[in-house]
Amino acid sequence: MLAVKDLSVTYQNNKVLNGFNLNLEQGDIFALLGDSGSGKSSALRFIAGLDNADNGRVELDGRQLSVSGKHQITPELREVGMVFQDYALFPHMNVEKNITFGISNQPKSEQQARVKELLSLIGLKGIEKKYPHQLSGGEQQRVALARALAPSPKLLLLDEPFSSLDKNHRNQLVSQVRSILKKAQVTSILVTHDEDEANALADKVGTIQNKQLTIK
What pTM does this model have? Predict the structure, then answer.
């Protein structure tokens, strides 16, 4: 499903990745570990199409997205979803409008059906009209996940999505998110610095060492 080949990235005159390679199959959940500044988020941003690189190629489901470090396909056309650590929900929109933001071009009836389907998937039925400030941190993160899943992406990228939660809530949410991703059968990459979190969520775990990726 995903192939990243020979990715090299320089950030502020410092080469953070040099020959990063990754292959994932349909439905794989992969966790990417590394110290702060090791290049985890740089790899994610290149895959998403948010940044260029010195060199590298990305293919998703047989379609070439980037080659020689430059983008050929813009982020919004990549069929890649993203979940951020700060949730990035729109505070002035209720849950329904947040989830349907990326599918607003679809008929209203289809949007509503997708919201109900996703709220059932994330275990939060009946909160369509609530606003983000009325939800707990864990509920907000699950809504952010539902919003990212709404357009049915082929790849989901999660950039330290649990870092703002306390340990008890984080452990519970990690288990819930793994179940959600498996039910959705979406190929996913989690960036984290927490090894326990990575092992609990992912099928495969890799660590960036010496600017390259080593997979357990």
Answer: 0.89
